[in-house]
UniProtKB/TrEMBL annotation:
Limits of the Glycosyl transferase family domain: 207-359
InterPro entries in alphabetical order: Glyco_trans_1, Glyco_trans_4-like_N
Source organism of the structure: Sediminicurvatus halobius
Protein name as it appears in the record: Glycosyl transferase
Keyword RNA-binding: no
Molecular function per GO: glycosyltransferase activity
CDD domains (alphabetical): GT4_GT28_WabH-like
Transcription regulation found in the keyword field: no
Keywords: Transferase
Residue ranges constituting the Glycosyltransferase subfamily 4-like N-terminal domain according to the UniProt record: 25-182
Any one biological process term the GO annotation gives: carbohydrate derivative metabolic process
Length: 382
């Protein structure tokens, strides 16, 4: 493990981020926001990507300052030689990576390259719950990596204290080995005046619209949201919009039909600005079975929109201040979720208080916390 902090002014510190994503996930927005925050603080990071993989950066003035390096590899599993060459030639002061496979490649590449680049590994989910959903060999292998590979890194970063504590217990690490850093979600410029989406249900405010967002997969448990919505519809008009794409789309359409609410539910797919829907919704609902720190929940708070979430591991309880900023309901409990939605629609909380709860996740504040965790600046530097 290297021990020195990356020294120098913002212009003198070289930063690299190595990510491989689907191109349409919450991680993509986190990466774009983190890079934007770093640029605003005076840094000029490089983004390393795998060919034909995300993250894809939107065209903004800040992100035009980010150099994008396409590693000559078709998959994360074949990216090791290219990353070794990059580290030897560029020798960045700090490298930040994300997710299990990329983290392992980075650890191996630094060792093979013989460089002293500080390495910070990010994991964005609750590891124990995630591994419980995998096969036995995967579980054994990842646990072995945490105990035998990860100790060589300089920093491990997770988006919530709950998730950090979970990994420390699983890996047998001492308290404080993992740093919890709020994700960069809220761009104050972008969230200042949010236009309405081009969707007929948001033009007329007479019928409440509930919004959910995320990958259409089992972990997000949109089936519970559909059942709760059907309960809500028994005694009041309402509509539901679920943003995102994924393999469970047809199943969710079928469930909506079986519940008799298909005409009141819409699946627009992936949208580049989900906050346009959130800001003009009557309520936002998160029904996940596990998370790390759900981006969409923070975005909804930043819009001043009433929110409800399952009390899943981990992140929602932390983000919602143990229920002060929005109700927490048991996972899979559609009755409790329906009651919480009814209360939020009938008596919405003060939107300014909700926005205030999202301030720790503003871009510049989060980027500075990342830089400190990575060792790019000392704790006293602003």
């Amino acid at each position: 493990m290297t021990s020195s902090v990356c020294q120098g002014s913002a212009s003198g510190v070289t930063l690299a981020l190595f990510m491989a994503t689907s191109g349409h996930s919450g991680v993509d927005r986190v990466v774009a926001n983190l890079l934007t925050g770093m640029v605003r603080l005076g840094y000029r990071p490089e983004l390393l990507r795998i060919r034909d993989h995300g993250p894809y950066l939107p065209e903004t003035p800040e992100l035009s300052e980010v150099s994008q390096v396409s590693l000559p590899a078709e998959h994360v599993n074949t990216a090791l030689p290219a990353l070794v060459r990059y580290l030897r030639s560029k020798r960045p002061d700090c490298l930040l990576t994300d997710k299990y496979k990329v983290n392992r490649i980075a650890l191996t590449a630094r060792w093979l390259s013989g460089t002293t680049t500080r390495l910070a590994l990010r994991i964005g989910t609750t590891v124990s719950v995630d591994l419980a959903s995998r096969g036995r060999l995967d579980r054994v292998f990842e646990r072995w990596c945490f105990r035998h590979l990860y100790p060589a890194t300089d920093a491990v970063i997770m988006p919530s204290r709950q998730a950090a504590d979970d990994l420390e217990r699983l890996a047998g690490w001492p308290d404080g080995r993992v740093t919890a850093v709020p994700s960069p979600i809220v761009d104050t410029e972008r969230f200042r005046a949010i236009p309405r989406p081009d969707h007929p249900w948001f033009r007329d405010g007479s019928v409440p619209v509930i919004v959910g967002a995320g990958e259409l997969c089992g972990r997000k448990d949109f089936e519970t949201l559909l059942r709760a919505f059907a309960r809500l519809r028994q005694n009041r008009p309402a509509r539901l919009v679920i943003l995102g794409r994924g393999g469970r789309l047809e199943r969710l359409r079928r469930v909506a039909g079986e519940l008799g609410v298909a005409e009141e539910v819409d699946f627009p797919g992936f949208v580049s600005r989900p906050e346009m829907y959130m800001a003009h919704a009557s309520a936002f609902a998160l029904t996940s079975r596990w998370e790390g720190a759900p981006v969409v929940l923070i975005e909804a708070l930043a819009c001043g929109t009433p929110v409800v979430s399952t009390d899943c591991p981990s992140g929602p309880r932390e983000i919602l201040g143990n229920g002060r900023h929005g109700p927490l309901v048991p996972m899979g409990d559609d009755a409790a979720l329906a009651n919480a939605l009814r209360t939020l629609i009938d008596a919405p909380p003060d939107p300014d208080q909700l926005r205030a709860a999202a301030r720790p996740y503003e871009l510049e504040a989060s980027a500075l916390a990342y830089l400190r965790a990575m060792g790019a600046v000392s704790g006293d530097d602003a």
